Amino acid sequence: MDFTLTLLGTGTSHGVPMIGCDCPVCHSTDPRDRHLRAAAWVHTDDTSVLIDVGPDLREQVIRQHVMRVDAVFLTHTHADHLHGIDDLRGFTRLCRQALPLYARKHDTDFIRNHFDYIFNDHDFKHGWFIPRIELRDLDGQDLIRVGALPIQPIPLVHGHGHAMGYRIGNVAYLTDCSAIPESSYPLLQGLDAMVIDGLRWTPHYTHLCFEQAIAEAKRLQVPKTYLTHLTHDIAYAENQAKLPPGVFLAYDGLDITGTL
């Protein structure tokens, strides 16, 4: 069975173009140089899952005509991956039921504390005008099934903290990481495609740079690798030509077809 991983956003926490920047990339007319905050949509004809709900969520789901969401999976709680959570009310209002949101327990605790208005409305006095979310803790590396989709959590290192990547069938989505723990490599064998953090050419302490991401692709022997979480240092036309065969710059709206 086939599924599609659509990249809703492929940029850093600033997005591209950046506020107040006059650089050539921020003024580029190439649509591949425009990057909303990082997020993804995994979907089949019958199942629809979001990975991350950043501040550009409303624009992203309208652009891609996302009409239904069955579950949300969070990579981590940084603002560029979480602060669109209120816009999930658009989906819960339509379906009239709570939306499962999966994350590490540390992250579900954070969400419950920082967005308490969502979870303290026990009397339903605000009706469907706030998102109705059911927080679900990811228990280690157990596979989660949502409809037709088997979703495998992949623990990652993100600077001094942690993030979660996800594998669906033969495709992995690994944004916001500075390293892959040794214990996660067995979960990433046999991939046909991988979306991985590749901030820019120069190193960064909380993200993989291009050289590091390409090395991970070689280690895992992935035929197609897409670099995401791109900064405004990276012009598509100029930099795609510098990448080795099988490695591509991601861009918003890119569809990657996978097999379950």
Give a quick rundown of the structure.
The chain is α/β, with parallel strands linked by helices and 260 residues long. It contains seven helices and 14 strands. The strands form two sheets. It has a seven-stranded mixed beta sheet with strand order 6-5-4-3-2-1-14. A seven-stranded mixed beta sheet has the order 7-8-9-10-11-12-13.
Overall spatial form: globular
Low-confidence runs (pLDDT<50, min 5 residues)? none
* Through-space gap between termini: 5 Å
For this structure, what is the CATH homologous superfamily?
Ribonuclease Z/Hydroxyacylglutathione hydrolase-like
Give the C-level CATH assignment: Alpha Beta
Question: Strand content of the residues, in percent?
Answer: 25-35%
CATH A-level architecture? 4-Layer Sandwich
Number of helices: 7
Helix content: 10-25%
Element pattern in H and E? EEEHEHHEHHEEEEEEHEHEE
CATH fold group? Metallo-beta-lactamase, Chain A
Q: How many individual β-strands? A: 14
Number of domains: 1
EC number: 3.1.4.55
Domain Metallo-beta-lactamase: 36-229
Organism: Oligosphaera ethanolica
InterPro entries: Metallo-B-lactamas, RibonucZ/Hydroxyglut_hydro
